[in-house]
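Protein modeling request. Please complete all fields; requests missing the sequence field cannot be processed.
Requester role: graduate student
Desired output: 3D structure, token encoding
Chains: 1
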Amino acid sequence: MTSNAKPAAVDLAAEESRKTAKRDALMAIEKQWQGDWEHRGVFEVDMPSDDSVAPEDLHDKHPKWMGTFPFPYMNGVLHLGHAFSVSKIEFAAGWERLQGKRALFPFGFHVTGMPIKAAADKIARELEMFGPEFAVPEELETQLSELSVDSPKAGGTFRGKKTKVAAKTGNKKYQFQIMQDQGMSNAEIAKFAHAEHWLEHYPPIAISDLKAMGCKIDWRRAFLTTDHNPYYDSFAQWQFNRLREMDKIKFGKRYTIWSAKDGQPCMDHDRQSGEGVGAQEYTCIKMQVLNWSEAAQGVAGSIPELKGKKVFMVAATLRPETMYGQTNCFVGTKLTYGFFQSSKMDEVYVITERAARSMAFQGLSPADGQVVQLGTISGQDIVGTKVNAPLSHYTDGVFMLPMDNVLATKGTGVVTSVPSDSPDDFATLRDLKKKADYYGIQPEWVAGFEPVPVISTPAYGEMTAPALCEELKINSQKDRDQLAAAKDIAYKEGFYNGVMTVGEFQGQTVQEAKPRVRELLLANGDGFAYAEPEGLVMSRSGDECVVALCDQWYFDYGEAAWKKLAEECLAAMDTYGEETRHQFELSLDWLHQWACVRTYGLGSKVPWDSNYLIESLSDSTIYMSYYTVAHLLHRSLDGSTLGPLGITPADMDDAAWDYVLLGKELPSGHAKAEELVVLRRSYLYWYPVDIRSSGRDLIQNHLTFFIYIHTAMFPKSEWPRSVRANGHLMLNGEKMSKSTGNTLSLRESCDR
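Delivered output (752 residues):
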């Protein structure tokens, strides 16, 4: 009889255990000692209790070291990218301890701003839409699958199917599905409809993960930002009061990146994409229509709202000084333009819908945020229309002509043409003259319209664009690479070395004449100021942002005297490499006014106007000083547990912070005068920051703000000593990012 018995199964679990026995033994030892360190408070470091030494002499007798890391945002778990920057401080803290120094590595948690509130509101909306079980209708599920990125198992290879929409929105999914991917139940997800739950859920996980990593952190000093911690709230409001008194915070109209959906400025930390993108200012040129082309006449004549109104083709330019040389104007034949009512009821602008949306938030439409479109017209139909070109040598008007590479995503979709100084314009006009039939234009639209000298340069004379096209062998408007190089050369040569040869400012340098020509155009009513984002900016709420001109509170970064102090601070700092220093120098060169308040999200209220909240990059510039006293004030993240000195939030008024951090005289009779002496001594011992470790992407905002505000608030002896900036970790061949899902959590990393 044949036996059906099978060979004994191999005990795979036992085999796996044998393979990992050494690793498991090491991890067990690690956990044992981590527990011992925590029990004994090994990394809880205090200032010396040697009262015989004056505070200013403590460093000599008792050397110290303080290293910090930008507190992470608590809308999710920490990932390996955080750990990479943290590791620089972690290793340095161990080294400094071995040198006999009191080494302090504090850590806090950032919850200011839009992301948490926006995500909580999404969960609330999704509960309303789909119910507590988040049952998505089948038709919506199908649409979602077309937008989403395939979610791999932790650490696996990501394979995405990115549509055009998905690429634009950062692979947006429903918020509840993102959280389901983290292993949460529907009941747990529902709790996240309340912003407070995010603050309770994620910080303890971060602390646990950093302990598992073995970080030498003094957790007594940990805290949350915003008014959820009344101690930190008073600290944030105090610094805003002082900065306003110093005239570092100002109020006025300025351009800012704006989310119409959220109804407020969209700063770097509020963005899904476009971090670092600012407002690009243009001069818009109003070219009144003199005669419509036959096709355009048919379209315009069919729109009754245009009757009796002036219609302008509106072009946005960065070079108003060249308008004397306009020979024509370009449109994109494949683009759709609109007739938009301007703020002047007798004027209508022909521009793209995108430009009209931005103009609506800059006082250029009938009402703020209101776009009034009277009709549409194709770029092809516009070709052949004759317009008046302000300042142009050709005073009888110029024609609207086709151009291959006009973009709907930049400017107004209408492009001025100055072939004497723009290689693109020269190459296109030359093509049109050679092949009028091919491009579908009448020869008389280009005949007799020759380049006009506007600017003279030492290198290229009075015809910079023709000279560059010949030098670089540019044969047509399709030679995009050569034209890009020629454009860069032409602009720099004209701006830095050019002299005006025509107009009211003849003989002046281009640098002198440029703003004066702009002022002339605006004063004559031939132009107006306009701005738009330098690139695509998407808010975390999924809104494509515009530029708004609005009254707001802002930091006056870039002000000459303040900038000089920031440059002095940078010069004395160690950046551990010239690349980082160079990036700081670039940031100091371009950074200027920065909106510092908002109306939506989490945060501390602006002390002089409770309708506003302090924005997320503006409450986090000098919080390193808060670490020096946090453990004496409170012993819980939210400040609900009093610290050892019994100081309450009410005790920490502006006068208290003035004394502790600025050394100003404390008013007589202050209730906690003796206790505040301890805080002052602790601050003086630990400050300044010896090193700040961060990702390089924060140089353009947080780290430069960090320098600016320190120079405004503190004496030179308390300015930061060094900044170490690292690049990004790569995962699956791409930059790690929470927004795209290409990430590996710190917990997963430690478990492995």
